[in-house]
């Protein structure tokens, strides 16, 4: 049994003394919460009731809360793997379509449309996801998303002409946008503060896994086969989500208090700390229910402050060239090792580095805070890009320098390492943490749509930048963007590691000064 489910008597007494007021407001929710409340009210039979509560809690937790939280997160993570496969699919699709034996022939213009078609609807998908999250729930939004994901991949697999491929790419791209906010919000609302950073960082790991799988399968299989295999991911997501509850936060917001309590205890166990957080959640729900829905919520610092910070984070990530540099990674790898190196091998080496560092990012996010990783990642990313830019510039002036090919390779690997441990996973992780309870779906939808708009702008402008500014000029620009964005994030990014979602919301309202002071966080 998880040790959190059997706290010692001193801890119980300390929690009792701190939360007497909260318990009085929520004594009518259910038997478990009632027992907890009575113990907080100084009942003469406190000791026996508390003992009975803990015994019941111990008997009810057959699997540790961590196991259940991992199970709850597995559905969103599997669906996100399909998003990664969507992003990596064009890299294996286009070479096969351009082959002389291809049953579907394409020209250069059609190839560019295939590559960009998935990116076009991603921002729209994020906005629609915010609506689905609030109307149908976090869990159901993902089940709804999985259905068109299956249809999109099936259309690509069955395609006999370019139009079917484009339609399939558009649908899967839309689903990538739908998946982004839903996965982060659901994981954030079902996980314990101790594990939330690790589980949210696994979303970016899932993207890396999806890229790796798509490129690996495409190296050995036909593009149609890869598309059919990709159908398995959204199917598996539906199967996994059947066995987990809806987000307790969403259920509480909609007034389903008993279901919210059951879902919360299923995910978090029956520790006194968990009951304390549930009490705060219910209290917040009663406050939301008494408020009139108006634009004043959107003008609250609890909403616009995290919205600005997360938008800045996403823009910094995209304008650090995370996707643009990837397009040149294979050529840099080939130039370093030699022209005889197969481009698929070079691509798999880069994917492996990215995958390994995504695993490292999950571990680091669990151990360290968001702020230290952001600072290290932004500075390391900037230094790597400036180093790569400097080498390309000097080698253009002095061709003999080009023989030192290990330098750009080292800069490239350094870039992948630093950008993957911070700038890539953390904005996605914090999207599921920083927005207020009543507007979490809307906030995550807006911020992730900004991310995909920035993604589209960077990818669209990168060819022109490398033409008119040369690659060294483009890389220098991306490096400066990473450094400037990192400085601003250093000033304003709060630390959320180990904090409950309510503590984070209170911080942005100006009621969480202790959270800020304890973590030396930004000045928001």
Tell me what the structure shows.
- With 524 residues, this protein is mainly α.
- The chain has 3 domains: 3-62 and 253-290, no CATH class; 64-244, Growth Hormone, Chain: A; 300-524, Growth Hormone, Chain: A, CATH 1.20.1250.20.
- 78% of the residues lie in helices and 0% in strands.
- It is globular, with a radius of gyration of 25 Å.
- The two termini are 40 Å apart.
- The model is unreliable at 1-61 (pLDDT under 50).
Give a summary of the structure in a few sentences.
InterPro entries: MFS_dom, MFS_sugar_transport-like, MFS_trans_sf, MFS_Trehalose_Transporter, Sugar/inositol_transpt, Sugar_transporter_CS. By secondary structure, this protein is mostly helical.
List the helices and strands and how they pair.
Blueprint (H helix, E strand, L loop, with lengths): L8 H10 L1 H5 L6 H10 L5 H15 L4 H33 L10 H10 L4 H15 L1 H21 L3 H29 L2 H28 L2 H8 L1 H10 L6 H6 L3 H12 L3 H19 L10 H19 L4 H14 L5 H25 L2 H28 L8 H18 L1 H7 L8 H29 L1 H23 L8 H9 L3 H7 L5
GO cellular component, one term: membrane
Protein name: Major facilitator superfamily (MFS) profile domain-containing protein
Subcellular location: Membrane
Total discrete domains: 3
Distance between the termini: 40 Å
CATH topology of the largest domain: Growth Hormone, Chain: A
CATH 4th-level superfamily of the largest domain: MFS general substrate transporter like domains
Encode the helix/strand succession as letters: HHHHHHHHHHHHHHHHHHHHHHHHH
Report strand %: under 5%
User: What count of helical segments does DSSP give?
Assistant: 25
Overall geometry comes to globular
For the record, the CATH architecture of the largest domain stands as Up-down Bundle
**Biggest β-sheet: count, sense, barrel?**
none
Q: How much is the radius of gyration in Å? A: 25 Å
Outline the low-pLDDT stretches.
Answer: 1-61
Please count the beta strands (DSSP E, at least 2 residues each). Answer: 0
Amount of helix: over 70%
Biased composition (Low complexity): 1-11, 18-28
Region (Disordered): 1-28
Membrane topology: Multi-pass membrane protein
Protein name: Major facilitator superfamily (MFS) profile domain-containing protein
């Amino acid at each position: 049994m998880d040790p959190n489910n059997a706290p010692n008597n001193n801890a119980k007494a300390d929690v009792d003394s701190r939360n007497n007021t909260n318990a009085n407001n929520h004594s009518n929710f259910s038997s478990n919460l009632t027992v907890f409340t009575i113990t907080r009210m100084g009942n003469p039979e406190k000791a026996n009731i508390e003992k009975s509560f803990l015994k019941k809690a111990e008997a009810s937790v057959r699997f540790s809360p961590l196991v259940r939280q991992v199970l709850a997160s597995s559905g969103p993570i599997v669906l996100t793997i399909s998003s990664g496969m969507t992003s990596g699919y064009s890299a294996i699709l286009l070479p096969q379509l351009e082959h002389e034996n291809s049953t579907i022939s394409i020209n250069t213009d059609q190839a560019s449309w295939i590559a960009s078609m998935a990116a076009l609807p991603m921002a729209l998908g994020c906005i629609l996801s915010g609506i689905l999250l609030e109307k149908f729930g976090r869990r159901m939004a993902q089940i709804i998303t999985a259905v068109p994901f299956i249809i999109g991949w099936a259309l690509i697999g069955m395609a006999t002409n370019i139009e079917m491929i484009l339609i399939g790419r558009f649908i899967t791209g839309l689903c990538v946008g739908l998946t982004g906010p839903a996965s982060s919000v659901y994981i954030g609302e079902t996980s314990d503060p101790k594990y939330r950073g690790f589980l949210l960082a696994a979303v970016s790991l899932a993207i890396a896994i999806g890229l790796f799988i798509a490129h690996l399968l495409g190296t050995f299989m036909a593009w149609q086969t890869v598309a059919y295999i990709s159908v398995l991911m959204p199917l598996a997501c539906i199967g996994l989500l059947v066995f987990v509850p809806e987000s307790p936060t969403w259920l509480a917001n909609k007034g389903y208090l008993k279901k919210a309590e059951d879902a919360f205890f299923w995910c978090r166990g029956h520790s006194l700390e968990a009951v304390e957080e549930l009490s705060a959640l219910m209290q917040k729900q009663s406050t939301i229910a008494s408020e009139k829905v108006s634009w004043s919520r959107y003008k609250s610092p609890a909403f616009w402050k995290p919205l600005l910070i997360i938008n800045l984070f996403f823009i910094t990530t995209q304008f650090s060239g995370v996707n643009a540099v990837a397009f040149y990674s294979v050529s840099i790898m080939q130039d370093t090792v030699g022209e005889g190196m197969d481009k698929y091998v070079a691509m798999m080496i880069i994917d492996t580095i990215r995958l390994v560092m995504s695993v490292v990012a999950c571990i680091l996010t669990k151990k360290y805070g968001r702020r230290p990783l952001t600072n290290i990642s932004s500075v390391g990313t900037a230094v790597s890009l400036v180093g790569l830019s400097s080498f390309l510039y000097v080698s253009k002036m002095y061709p003999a320098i080009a023989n030192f090919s290990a330098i750009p390779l080292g800069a490239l690997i350094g870039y992948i390492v630093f950008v993957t441990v911070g700038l890539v996973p953390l904005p996605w992780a914090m999207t599921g943490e920083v927005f207020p309870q009543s507007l979490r779906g809307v906030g995550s939808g807006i911020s992730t749509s900004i991310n995909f708009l920035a993604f589209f702008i960077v990818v669209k402008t990168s060819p022109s930048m490398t033409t008119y500014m040369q690659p060294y000029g483009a890389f220098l620009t991306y490096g400066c963007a990473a450094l400037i964005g990192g400085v601003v994030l250093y000033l304003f990014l709060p630390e959320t590691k180990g904090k409950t979602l309510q503590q984070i919301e209170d911080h942005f309202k100006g009621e969480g000064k202790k959270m800020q002071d304890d973590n030396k966080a930004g000045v928001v």
